[in-house]
Design goal:
By secondary structure, the chain is α+β, with helices and mostly antiparallel strands. It contains 15 helices and 21 strands. Bound molecules: flavin-adenine dinucleotide (FAD).
Length: 435
């Protein structure tokens, strides 16, 4: 591969902390552009990692990283999502064909295999991986806010500080925590338990992810992976306590007692540990500073509903790279660098707000109310106008959930309009919401 050497005043390596999907995306782009890049990864990856259902908007990024053929071999394709609501007919979303270069499918990813594909690619294009838990120190060193501690410098084989530090440590948020940067929290305080199973019913059509509103509160996912199915629950903390003392008990309790989940649970054998995640709705109030920037979950994560997390991790790396290193900027040119990075984080803000709004319609019942009203209108009037509106609404929601048109002002305004004006007579959203 021909490498393009970018103009820079400071040729010291760029150091990425964290070799998850966001860190590896940044490492691949840096190495391919001719930048020396070191990834410090602590290897502290749990057996069970969430982030198994991807949205179609990841496909163009993975294509750019040169990994789609390998991903296609280790993951299975996902054509869409079916929402099962205990009081409504199933709502099926198929991803729309080719919007903004985004195809009509994505993948369900066994995370260890998915992460390995990205790591192998980063090594192949020249990034150097160091197995070490990185440590940072606060303080202005050479005009930079953060410095690697001595142990990390030695482990990385560096005699001087890197030219730039990228924090891709996920929820560890090493840079923000070292600098005492606060995170704004989302409105939900759910807890999630999940595990892998063989033997139960698999969603149909093949690869479809099933999201279930649980009668007892919260929601569940069924994600078909190549040789197993991932089943997870997302419930409020009080509901979780009432379901049992341990993660295993709670998951088993919901799988045994929720009618819409039972077909997937019946005959299913658990083949993994049950993992727990909580307190995950976090976005840093500042994403970058002199000599550092954060990407992926280390910067922010909205919510597991609609599976935007991995896409946002990859996109935040791509977008920061393109705005800065990829545009030939040097971190030493602090004024231009900072302006470009500010633009990137404003863009991230637009992504977060758009996902938050779309996701809120699922939680607060508006979306289910809209589906109910649309179905009733089509049945009652069955005229071209009602059919057109139903088709438009469904297509726009699918496009937004795929990541292709999530931020489109036209689509966002359209959804606001139909929710406000075309839901007359339908049951109140409050009765249909996810508790
Ligand atoms: C309940 C739940 C369900 C989810 N479901 C989905 C889903 O279906 N689809 C989806 O797209 N997203 C989902 N997500 C989000 C998704 O898991 C994350 O957005 C994604 O994993 C973030 O990737 P990342 O690279 O930023 O961080 P991570 O994947 O967390 O990677 C961070 C890496 O940094 C390493 N590290 C940490 N600290 C250090 C250190 N000091 N030194 C060296 N290395 C370090 C870690 O070991 C790890 O390898 C879900 C999240 C939750 C909470």
């Amino acid at each position: 591969m021909v490498r393009q050497i970018l103009p820079t005043q400071n040729n010291a390596p760029v150091l990425v902390i964290g070799g998850g999907p966001a860190g590896c995306t940044m490492a691949i782009l840096l190495a391919e552009s001719g930048r020396e890049c070191i990834v410090i990864e602590d290897g502290n990856t749990p057996e069970m990692i969430v982030g198994e259902s991807l949205i179609p908007a990841v496909v163009p990024i993975l294509k750019r990283l040169g990994v789609t053929d390998t991903i296609d071999k280790v993951c299975n394709r996902k054509p869409g999502v079916t929402f099962l609501h205990d009081e409504l007919e199933p709502v099926e979303f198929r991803f729309p064909i080719n919007r903004n270069g985004v195809p009509n499918f994505s993948w369900n990813a066994p995370r260890p295999s998915f992460d390995k594909v990205l790591r192998d690619r980063a090594v192949e294009v020249g990034a150097r991986f160091v197995l070490q838990r990185a440590g940072l120190e606060k303080g202005i060193v050479g005009g930079k806010e953060l410095a690697l501690d001595e142990e990390t410098l030695v482990a990385a084989g560096l005699k001087e500080q890197p030219s730039f530090i990228i924090d891709a440590t996920g929820r560890v948020r090493i840079a923000a925590k070292t600098l005492g940067i606060e995170a704004s929290r989302g409105t939900r305080t759910d807890i999630s338990h999940f595990a892998h199973f063989t033997g139960g019913m698999r969603p149909d059509p093949a690869g479809t992810v099933v999201i279930i509103r649980l009668a007892g509160g919260g929601w569940a996912w069924v994600i078909p992976l190549p040789d197993r199915v991932s089943i997870g629950i997302v419930v409020g903390k009080e509901i979780a306590k009432s379901l049992g003392a341990t993660a295993e008990e709670r998951l088993a309790n919901v799988m045994a007692n929720e009618p819409l989940l039972q077909p997937y649970a019946s005959g299913a054998k658990c083949i993994s540990k049950t993992a727990t995640y909580s307190n995950y709705q976090l976005t840093s109030t500042r994403g970058h500073g002199a000599g550092w920037a954060s990407i992926g979950d280390a910067y922010g994560f909205v919510d597991p509903m609609l599976s935007s997390g991995l896409f946002m991790g990859l996109e935040s790396a791509r977008s920061l790279f393109d705005a800065t290193f990829g545009a030939g900027l040097s971190p030493d040119d602090a004024r231009r660098w900072s302006k470009a990075a500010d633009g990137h984080y404003r863009d991230m803000g637009r992504w977060f707000r758009s996902w938050e709004e779309l996701i809120s319609y699922f939680y607060n019942g508006d979306l289910f109310r809209l589906c109910l009203a649309g179905g009733e209108a089509t049945q009652k009037y069955n005229n071209p106008v009602s059919r057109f509106m139903e088709m438009q609404t469904s297509r726009r929601i699918s496009g937004m959930a795929s990541g292709a048109t999530t931020r489109s002002p036209i689509n966002r305004n359209f959804l606001r309009f139909v929710i406000r004006n075309l839901t007359w007579g339908a049951r109140p959203a409050d009765e249909l919401k996810i508790r």
